[in-house]
């Protein structure tokens, strides 16, 4: 690993602070990237009172104690800011060092930590919708970033494969021999659409027909107690659905594999023990025939504590119970240090209640972090939750088709010489990349508007812009193909545009660490966008292939590191960067 300039400058300022006043030895040096110099520190302003000195005086003493070959200039500005300028040769040494390493010198700050990430989690026998798309894309990005920083990532796809709806579905199939839903019975319709339709039909009958509703409930009991005939149909339904989910995962290029699936059914035989133990511990109580945990933290609109329902009056277990068993399993059997739930914001109360119950049961050791990585709703152009005209939620594949179709038009216009098969391949990567990037580049907690035209544009902060920026650098590098690897001469001058790009490239690892801590992928998007623009500025200001040595070698190395950083950054977003576009 290569320590970043930010890390090194921070350490230097910390030394300066300790030299100025030994009592301030462990104070935060507060170093940030800056517009006016390379970095800035406001530490003297923050610490002046403790030091008993005017900020400018303290800043001057700190500046006098900052000693490192990395910095060419340290000066006090304004009321007591430190402005820190990195030495040109230090910038070049970083660039050379990172470019020479396959891992780009990235940190491994998450090594030794096991992180369980719960994401995607579509519901069997239903179409995956745009909310599951968000979960899938955000969760996959976090899995990649944390894994890249050394974490031991355990992906968990908490499929909705259990519960009362299956009683209804299986009963309906039993009573309606004509209902076609298996792949081999269907022509042209995806099994999931057919299952989705079956679900609606069963639901309608369930709501309208009490007799059917009663028989469906009996089916749930049969399912949960393992009746072989019922289980056989259930298994078939799950398998059909999973085939369709898998097609989407493949198209999206996400990391999830069948072995990551641990659906709700997986926890079925642990539920009774969970309820018993919680009851014996006095955490759960019987209320109106149900077993519940009343929250000590959350109250409803009436001021009464909100209950987490562990066992319903009819003896059945539900979503709440399963999540308590799931969290317990992840901590005690998967040995998670961190458990992340990438689930939409509407479930935040649910997760707070689950975590509270598990903590009160004593199943959550203090060192384990549990986070609800929540996200907002996807909106249509009318500002309402995104739906098709018929009123149904939009299917994911139709959405990707629209993005890829649009990308094909853009690609064909940009590069008419591309052979049609290649253009189609690139359009698929661009379309899927555009949808992913749009998801990841907005702050995840906000609602965002689904707008295919804007997503697939090649200008502005979009996936296509970054893919194109990468392809452009790749084409510059192709013109130097066959030459020996470029050599960096740290003593050559440093143009301001080279400096800006070099510093941006050096901050890649800091950005990833920031994403790992904040769980905000949009910070990586912003970083890549800024870096691509720093490259454009550099390329406009500094000739590369026609420059004399040593500039040529230095600049080619900057090009190589820029391409590698964009390629790797996009890969961590789950987006492929084609070599040509
Ligand atoms: N299947 C659920 C849904 O579609 C999401 C499950 C999220 N994960 C969990 N452990 N509850 O809403």
UniProtKB/TrEMBL annotation:
<keyword id="KW-0067">ATP-binding</keyword>
<comment type="subunit">
    <text>Monomer.</text>
</comment>
<feature type="short sequence motif" description="'HIGH' region">
    <location>
        <begin position="122"/>
        <end position="132"/>
    </location>
</feature>
<keyword id="KW-0030">Aminoacyl-tRNA synthetase</keyword>
<dbReference type="GO" id="GO:0005737">
    <property type="term" value="C:cytoplasm"/>
</dbReference>
<dbReference type="InterPro" id="IPR001412">
    <property type="entry name" value="aa-tRNA-synth_I_CS"/>
</dbReference>
<dbReference type="InterPro" id="IPR009080">
    <property type="entry name" value="tRNAsynth_Ia_anticodon-bd"/>
</dbReference>
<dbReference type="InterPro" id="IPR008909">
    <property type="entry name" value="DALR_anticod-bd"/>
</dbReference>
<dbReference type="GO" id="GO:0004814">
    <property type="term" value="F:arginine-tRNA ligase activity"/>
</dbReference>
<comment type="similarity">
    <text>Belongs to the class-I aminoacyl-tRNA synthetase family.</text>
</comment>
<dbReference type="GO" id="GO:0006420">
    <property type="term" value="P:arginyl-tRNA aminoacylation"/>
</dbReference>
<keyword id="KW-0547">Nucleotide-binding</keyword>
<dbReference type="Pfam" id="PF05746">
    <property type="entry name" value="DALR_1"/>
</dbReference>
<dbReference type="InterPro" id="IPR014729">
    <property type="entry name" value="Rossmann-like_a/b/a_fold"/>
</dbReference>
<feature type="domain" description="DALR anticodon binding">
    <location>
        <begin position="466"/>
        <end position="581"/>
    </location>
</feature>
<dbReference type="Pfam" id="PF03485">
    <property type="entry name" value="Arg_tRNA_synt_N"/>
</dbReference>
<dbReference type="InterPro" id="IPR036695">
    <property type="entry name" value="Arg-tRNA-synth_N_sf"/>
</dbReference>
<protein>
    <recommendedName>
        <fullName>Arginine--tRNA ligase</fullName>
        <ecNumber>6.1.1.19</ecNumber>
    </recommendedName>
</protein>
<dbReference type="InterPro" id="IPR035684">
    <property type="entry name" value="ArgRS_core"/>
</dbReference>
<feature type="domain" description="Arginyl tRNA synthetase N-terminal">
    <location>
        <begin position="3"/>
        <end position="86"/>
    </location>
</feature>
<dbReference type="GO" id="GO:0005524">
    <property type="term" value="F:ATP binding"/>
</dbReference>
<keyword id="KW-0963">Cytoplasm</keyword>
<keyword id="KW-0648">Protein biosynthesis</keyword>
<dbReference type="InterPro" id="IPR001278">
    <property type="entry name" value="Arg-tRNA-ligase"/>
</dbReference>
<dbReference type="InterPro" id="IPR005148">
    <property type="entry name" value="Arg-tRNA-synth_N"/>
</dbReference>
<dbReference type="Pfam" id="PF00750">
    <property type="entry name" value="tRNA-synt_1d"/>
</dbReference>
<keyword id="KW-0436">Ligase</keyword>
């Amino acid at each position: 690993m290569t320590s970043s300039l930010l890390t090194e400058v921070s350490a230097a300022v910390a030394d300066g602070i300790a030299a100025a006043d030994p009592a301030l030895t462990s104070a935060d040096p507060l170093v940030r990237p800056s517009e006016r110099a390379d970095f800035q520190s406001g530490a003297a302003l923050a610490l002046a009172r403790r030091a008993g000195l005017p900020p400018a005086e303290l800043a001057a003493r700190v500046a006098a104690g900052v000693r490192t070959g990395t910095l060419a200039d340290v000066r006090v500005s304004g009321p007591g800011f430190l402005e820190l300028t990195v030495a040109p040769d230090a910038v070049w040494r970083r660039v050379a060092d990172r470019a020479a390493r396959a891992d780009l010198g990235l940190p491994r700050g998450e090594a030794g930590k096991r992180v369980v990430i719960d994401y995607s989690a579509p519901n069997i026998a239903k179409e995956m919708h745009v909310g599951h798309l968000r979960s899938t894309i955000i969760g996959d990005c976090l899995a990649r970033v944390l894994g890249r920083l050394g974490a031991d990532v355990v992906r968990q796809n908490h499929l909705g494969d259990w519960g009362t709806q299956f009683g209804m579905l299986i009963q309906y199939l039993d009573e309606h021999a004509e209902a076609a839903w298996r792949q081999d019975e269907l022509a042209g319709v995806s099994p999931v659409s057919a299952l989705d339709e079956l679900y609606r039909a069963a639901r309608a009958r369930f709501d309208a027909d009490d007799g059917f509703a009663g028989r469906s409930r009996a089916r749930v009991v049969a399912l949960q107690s393992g009746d072989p005939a019922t289980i056989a149909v259930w298994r078939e339904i799950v398998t059909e659905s999973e085939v369709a989910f898998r097609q989407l995962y493949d198209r999206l290029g996400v990391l999830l594999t069948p072995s990551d699936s641990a659906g709700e059914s997986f926890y079925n035989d642990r539920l009774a023990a969970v309820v018993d133990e919680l009851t014996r511990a006095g955490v759960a109580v019987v209320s109106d025939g149900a077993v519940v945990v009343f929250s000590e933290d959350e109250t409803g609109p009436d001021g009464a504590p909100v209950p987490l329902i562990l066992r319903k009056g009819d003896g059945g277990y539900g979503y709440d119970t399963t999540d308590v068993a799931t969290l317990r399993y992840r901590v005690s059997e998967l040995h998670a240090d961190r458990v992340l739930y990438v689930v939409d914001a509407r479930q935040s109360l649910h997760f707070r209640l689950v975590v509270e119950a598990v903590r009160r049961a004593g199943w959550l050791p203090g060192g384990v972090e549990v986070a609800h990585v929540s996200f907002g709703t996807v909106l249509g152009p009318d500002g309402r939750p995104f739906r098709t005209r018929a009123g149904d939620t939009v299917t994911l594949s139709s959405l990707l088709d629209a993005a890829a179709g649009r990308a094909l038009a853009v690609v064909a216009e940009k590069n008419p010489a591309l052979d049609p098969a290649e253009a189609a391949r690139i359009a698929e990567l661009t379309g899927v990349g555009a949808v992913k990037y749009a998801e990841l580049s907005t702050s995840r907690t906000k609602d965002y508007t689904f707008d295919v035209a804007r997503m697939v544009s090649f200008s502005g902060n979009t996936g296509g812009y970054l893919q194109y920026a990468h392809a452009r650098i790749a084409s510059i590098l192709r013109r130097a193909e066959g030459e020996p690897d470029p050599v960096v001469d740290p003593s050559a001058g440093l143009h301001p545009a080279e400096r800006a790009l070099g510093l941006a490239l050096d901050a890649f690892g800091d950005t990833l660490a920031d994403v790992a801590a904040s769980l905000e992928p949009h910070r990586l998007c912003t970083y890549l966008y800024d870096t691509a623009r720093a490259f454009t500025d550099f390329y406009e200001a500094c000739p590369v292939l026609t420059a004399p040595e040593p500039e040529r070698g230095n600049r080619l190395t900057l090009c190589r590191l820029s391409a590698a950083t964009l390629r790797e950054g996009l890969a961590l977003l789950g987006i492929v960067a084609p070599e040509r576009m």
